Amino acid sequence: MESVKILKDLINLKTVNPPGDEIRIVNYIKKFFTKNKIKFKIFAKDKKRPNIIGYLGKGKPRLLISCHSDTVPAGEGWSTNPFKAVVKNKRIYGRGALDDKGPLAALLMAAKEIKKIENNLKGTFLVCIPSDEERGSAFGLKYLINKCKIKPDFAMMPDNAGSMKHISVAEKGVLWLELNSKGKIAHGSRPEKGINAVSNLIEVLNLIKKYNMKFKEHNLLSKPTINLGQIQGGNAPNMVPSIAKAVLDIRFLPSQNPQQILNDIKNLIKKAKNKNKTININVNILEKAQATEVDENNKLIGIIKRITKKTLGFEPKIVGDSGASDAKSLIAKSIPAVGFSFGEGKMFHVANENVKIKELNQFSVVLTEIVKSVLK
């Protein structure tokens, strides 16, 4: 079965971000496009991290379907080699099986089918495989949109799972804050001679843990969250640490202002410093993206609903996502972009990531019919 072979091949090409090495996937897809006589272009901000777009048809409207080529690290707890695809129990296991190499395999199969009727298309199908989605898309879709002037009329991001029962039209905003704590080094037996950067950072983090953000509830999105994603500090048990760092991952709602959240965090630091004058912590923004949502009544959503109902017998529901996808970059340019895919959401970024082979094949059929309908 070609779809299974393609997905296994993609999983076996390690593209963990960082560093990415998405060129491994691009070289594979170049061969696929060439074999199937699909025109393509490569766009690269970094030669090891290129993006590739296949083009079918011509003119408007332009429908872009995008599946990223990078993955998160494997992490612990795997029963198999995460970078050696395994087929068992009618599923395919491996890092990227769901996010996003499974959807990518389905997309390539859809492109192969659409090639057969390319001359009948009334518009352009952009088969987009960007890099760097897992770390902000600076080398990927943001680069394609802002520097390479890629501008579709509609876009779909198969990056939200839901077994094709969900169409995501809203996403929380993202704010990554790096807190850098400075202290004074000293011998561990004389801590009073130093300033403990780790302890001071913990004082501030405990205040942030109790911080209740103000927000207006959203009908599709859950409450805003703050996750302490990283913390570093200390060189040895017998030394007072002079530096420490923590990174917060804040997901906020459309009703919230990220600048206000940042101001609140800075005020909490000031509050802690009023009690402990040795606290010296500054805040850097590592990532900021607005919360986004698109009109539920746009043409693409109607087509996805109709095709899924016709093909699989059920109509997808409109939902929102706590996570962020490349859809944000497109929506920022007033391009309607929605999330729609197969697979189980619980499989994102976990050990033993896997997808059902049946859903993989169903999704390639649904994608093919959606493209036909949009560009008929």
Characterization of the model:
The protein has 376 residues and is of the alpha+beta class. It folds into two domains: 2-171 and 291-374, Zn peptidases (Aminopeptidase, 3-Layer(aba) Sandwich), CATH 3.40.630; 173-289, 2-Layer Sandwich (Alpha-Beta Plaits), CATH 3.30.70.360. 30% of the residues lie in helices and 26% in strands. It contains nine helices and 18 strands. The chain has helices spanning 2-12, 23-35, 101-115, 141-146, 197-209, 258-275, 299-312, 327-331, 357-374, and strands at 39-43, 51-58, 62-66, 86-88, 91-93, 123-129, 154-157, 166-171, 173-182, 186-187, 225-233, 239-240, 243-252, 281-289, 292-293, 317-321, 337-339, 354-356. The strands form five sheets. Strands 1-2-6-3-7-17 form a six-stranded mixed β-sheet. A four-stranded antiparallel β-sheet has the order 11-13-9-14. A three-stranded antiparallel β-sheet has the order 4-5-18. The radius of gyration is 23 Å and the shape is elongated. The model has no long low-confidence stretch (mean pLDDT 96).
Question: What is the element layout, followed by pairings?
Answer:
Blueprint: H1 2-12, H2 23-35, E1 39-43, E2 51-58, E3 62-66, E4 86-88, E5 91-93, H3 101-115, E6 123-129, H4 141-146, E7 154-157, E8 166-171, E9 173-182, E10 186-187, H5 197-209, E11 225-233, E12 239-240, E13 243-252, H6 258-275, E14 281-289, E15 292-293, H7 299-312, E16 317-321, H8 327-331, E17 337-339, E18 354-356, H9 357-374
Parallel strand pairs: 3-6, 3-7, 7-17, 8-16
Antiparallel strand pairs: 1-2, 2-6, 4-5, 5-18, 8-15, 9-13, 9-14, 10-12, 11-13
Helix pairs in contact: 1-3, 3-9, 5-6, 7-9
